[in-house]
Each structure stands twice: as C-alpha cells, then as structure tokens.
Amino acid sequence: MNEALIGFAVMLALGFARLPIAFAMGLVGVAGFAFKVSWAAAFAMTGSVTYETGLAYGFSIIPLFILMGNLVTRAGLSEQLYTASYAFLGHRKGGMAMSTIVACGGFSAICGSSIATAATMAKVAIPSMRRFGYSDALASGSVAAGGTLGILIPPSIIMVIYGILTGQNIGKLFIAGLLPGVLAILCYLVAVSATVHFDPKSGPRGPRMPWPERMIALKEVWGVLALFALVLGGIYGGVFTPTEAAGIGAGGAFIFALVRKGWSWRLYREILVESAATTAMIFSILIGALLFANFVNMTAMPAELVAFTDRFSAYPLLVIAAICLIYVLLGCVLESMSMMLLTVPLFYPVVAHLGFDLVWFGIIVVVAIEISLISPPVGLNVFVLRSVLTDIPTRTIFMGVMPFFAVDVVRLGILVAFPVISLYLTQFVK
Amino acid sequence: MDTFPSVYSDDPTLAALIRHVGGLLGVIAALVLAALMLLTCVDVLGRYLFNHPLPGGVELTELGMGALIFTSLPLVTLRRQHVRIDLFEVVPAGWRAGQHLVLDALAALCMAVIGWRLWLKAIDMAQAGETTGTLHLPVYPLVYYMAVMTFAATALMILFAWEDVRGKAAAPAEAEVFS
User: Fold this and answer.
1) CB contact under 8 A, B65 and A56
2) Chain B residues with CB-CB distance to A338 below 8 A
3) pLDDT at B1
4) Which of A52, A323, B4, B107 is least surrounded, with the fewest CB atoms within 10 Å of its CB?
5) Which residues pair with B138 in a beta bridge?
6) Cβ contacts (< 8 Å) between B64 and chain A: which residues?
7) Main-chain dihedrals φ then ψ at residue A27, nearest 5 degrees
C-alpha cells in the first residue's frame, strides 16, 4: 500500500509543480512499475499500453462524440433552445433563469461536455438575462450549474471513459443518465424558485408569450430533438452500438451545420482540428492514467482497499458516502477527467465487492463530478464563465452557484438512496 | 496558418517551418477525423440499407484512431494545450525559468520513451509481417508514423526547454479543459 501512496504523492507533487498531468501520471507509473518489476518490463508495458490504447476500435467513440459536440456548438442551436424554453417559462418569476436551465438540459442532450455546454449557453443566456435586470449572481449561477448537465444527460464523454475503465455497457450508462438528468433539471428549477422567492429583485418576470408564438419557437428546436432521438433511440433500440452512434451523431450534426451555416473549409477545418486536439489531450491523459493504474495494480493497494472496506460491509452506504466525499474534495484541486481516471480503477472493485451495481455507481460518480465542477475554489465551470464574461467577479458567480450546489448535494443523496431512478430504464436496453 | 500563434522561435526560418508543419498536421488530423466519421456512417448505412457492412470497417477505424491521435500530439504540444493543474504557483518567481526547463525536459523525456517504444514495435511488426485481419494491410508503416510524430512532439518540447534556458519561452497557454 505504501508504494502506491508514495506514487500518488509524487504524482500530485509533479502535477502541482505544473508538469502536464498526463506526463506526471505516466512518469510515476513507469518508474513505479520498474521499481516493482524491472525497467525492461516497464518499458515493454509502456509500448503495449500506448499501442493498444491508440489503436482501439472502441475508443473511436471519444473523438466522434467530441466532434458532434463541437459541430452543434458552432451550428448555433443554442439560441433556438433558449428562445423556445423562454417562450414557455419567461413570464414566471425567475423565468429566464429557468429557461437557461431547460436550454442547458436540451443542449446537454446533444453535447457530451459540461464545459462546452456552459460556455455555449453563457454567450446566449447571460446577455439577455442582464438586459432584463437579472442579478449577475443568478444569471451566472444558473449557467454554471445548468452546464454541469452536459456530462449527466447522454451523450457524455465522462460516462464513455467510466464505461471503458469499468467494462460497463456504455449504452446502459447513457440510458441510466436520462431520469437523473430530468431530476437534475427539476432540482435546479426549484433552486431558481427559491432564489427569487427570497430575493424577488434578482429575477423579474418577462412578458408572456401567446401560444402561437410558443409553437413557432418550439418548432425551431426540432433539429436538437431529431439528433437526440437518432443517437439515443439507435442505442436504446439496438439499431447500432454506442460507438457507431457517435459516428452517426457526428454525421447528423455535420449535415445540420451544413444546412445552417453552409460550406466553409475554414470553419470545418477549425472544428475538426479543435476536436482532434482535444482528442489527443484526452488520450495523453488516458495513456498516462493507464500506465499509472498498471503500477498501482502491481502494489498491494487494491487488495488492501477491498479488505479495508470489508470491515464496513454491514454499512455499505457508508463506503459510498465516503467515496462521494472524496470526489467532492478531490474535485476542489483536480481536473475532473484526471480525477476520475485516477480513482475509478481503485474504487470500482470495492464497490462491486460490496454488491452495488456499477452502472448506478457510474451515475453517482458523474453527479459527484458535476458538483466538483461548480464548487469553490476551482469549480471549472465557474472559470469557464469567468473567461467568457470577464466583467463578472468570480466571487459573484460562486455566490450565485450556492443554491444550485445545495440542491446538488440533496440530489446526490436522492440518487444514492433510490438506485431505481438510475437503473429503471436500463432494463429495457437491447 | 491562422489557428496557430506565429512565434515559437526568434529564428524566422525555424518559426516558419514550425508554422507550416503545424498547419499541415492540422489538415491531416482534420481529414483523418472526417474520414473516421464517414467510415462509421457508411458502415452502418451499408449494413441496414444494403445488408452489407463496409469490409474491414473496424480495422480501418483502428488505424485511423492511431493516425488521428498521433498526428494531433505535436499539435497539442505546439499549442501548449496539455492539461496542467493551474491552481497555484508552488515555485518562487525567481526560479520560474528553471522550473519550466525541468518540466519541459521531463515532458520531453516521457515522449521520447513513448516514441522509442513505438519505433521498436514498428521494427518488430515489420519483421513479423503483421497485417490486419480482413484487408491484409501492413500495420508497421503507421506505427513508424506514430513514432515519428511522437519524436516531433519531443523535439518541440526540447525546443521549448531551450527557449526556457534563454528566458524567451512564452508562458504556457491556459490549459483547455474538458469534461
């Protein structure tokens, strides 16, 4: 156990000294493996892990979903989503913040990234909320929180990586995220209502839209619905695998972008290069984390962790609660993808050993990561908003996020207590 | 090309070379990714519409993934987009140049090892005459390409380290993060 802990400490130290996290994990992983076995074996392991991770058919799901997300982001679907949800909710107290939440939920259904969802919706929703006199705190808080839906509502890059790490069916994970996603939207709507209840000035009513106008606005979002139905329906009905769904989704998003923005080599080159660069970043981290995991598996730590948690087998939920706490705390310092890659290989054998469903645990991990995305001091979504809206202080955004943070904790509790919310729909997956 | 900052070196020939190679790699990566997308679509459509999936679709995707990831590796390095923990500065300001030198050297070392192992793998595969299952494509040229791309990223890191020594390196761009 000691060697693994020293490995973690050295890796974190290198990371805090600003070595790119992929190299910090890889370096410690290979050196640790060499220490436990031999340098020859460690180098051989490096070669095979790199080769097998780089040339894996199943991993093509990652660049293709990234591409799909980038295509819909550039196609400008976010405006229509916001207009449509505003048409239905705008006349309520805090209605524009509610519209933001619903529009974020809709965008999450075609984009697998929280950061992209927050950044895209910020540009659309925040200027109009400010124009109508919404407080900066509520406006930015609702976008930061709504953005976290990106990784919960399928498709989701984080869920793909979780599925790869734990050998779970990615289709089932996606479907499992649906009801928790709806629950999340409802919780956030409650948070908005509570905020405007205590501070009515923070979110005034907008004008009420007549029904004909509402229907027109609703018709504009058919593209989002079509893309979502294509990808999720295809997976749900067993028409294609999640990996194929990613390619089909990217193709659909490409046609969409073509119809809306027309052809421009420069635009599509930019989108493709951006997606390729993100892919290489993710795979660097993935390879680094796998090297590190191979080292940790050479130590006694995984077995000792299982033995340790066995003592709590009478109260298995205590272990889950401890893991959730670890995630929220670690999320304060680590970027979410690295955090998941480092911890899930250690935790999932424990969770499986205690008899929990790993699809359900995947949803719990994703929701814990969502919380870490908006919690101070380094909630990533908050910093994304800071970079998009330079005139809102970080403090204000964190203040605005607090009601959402509170309902997030309640939501995590609900999902832990009622696994059926996550698992009910998965039984119908073909 | 416009997507890349223009100056990585004050030597104009070297800067121009890096810019052109960066632009070219971007185009290759873009085309490979677009091909991966088309490949999946054609495969699935073929299966349902013509009852005939694309022969070798899976192995073409595998080869495409290798090409995509390793073409993009020097690009990410060039843009200094590798994800770092940007929480706080642990190193006093006076030592910043030394810190960057050590970090860039460590990163170069990591990539050099990866490139070296891929190169050996390519030699093995060429000798064993390994080919893909359906289309019987030789895999070793791609593995050589992956090794070369990794060495290119290594060379960039060494260049950065050299610029650090001279105190000229641009501060690493804010890491782009995803989740």
Assistant:
1) yes
2) 83
3) 31
4) A52
5) B131
6) 60
7) -60, -50
Nearest in space to A7 (alpha carbons), one of A381, A297, A406: A297
Residues in chain B with CB shorter than 8 Å from the CB of A66 are 178
Closest-CA residue to A93 (of A191, A196, A190): A196
A-to-B residue pairs, Cβ atoms closer than 8 angstroms? 205
Q: How far apart are CA B93 and CA B83, in angstroms?
A: 21
Give the residue from chain A lying closest to B90, CA to CA: A17
Residue of A250, A273, A282 with shortest CB distance to B30: A273
| Distant-in-sequence, close-in-space partners of A111: CB < 8 Å, separation ≥ 6 | A68, A69, A72, A73, A117, A120, A150, A155
CA-wise closest residue to A380 among A144, A110, A69, A123: A144
Range B15-34 average pLDDT: 91
| pLDDT tens-digit map of A353-410 | 999 999 999 999 999 999 988 887 777 788 888 877 888 888 898 899 999 999 999 9
Residue A74 pLDDT > 50: yes
B89: closest CA of chain A, how far (Å)? 7
Name every chain B residue with its beta carbon within 8 A of the beta carbon of A43.
113, 117
B56: nearest CA partner in chain A: A57
Nearest to residue A150, comparing CAs of A105, A86, A89?
A: A105
pLDDT confidence of residue B88: 66
Reported ipTM:
0.88
Cα angle, residue A349 at apex, residues A305 and A113 outer, rounded to 5°: 115
- How far is CA A313 from each of CA A17, A327, A345, A415, rounded to the nearest angstrom? 39, 21, 20, 20
Residue B131: DSSP 8-state: B
Q: Do B117 and A26 touch (CB under 8 A)?
A: no
- Whether B148 shows a pLDDT value over 50: the answer reads yes
Main-chain dihedrals φ then ψ at residue B138, nearest 5 degrees: -70, 140
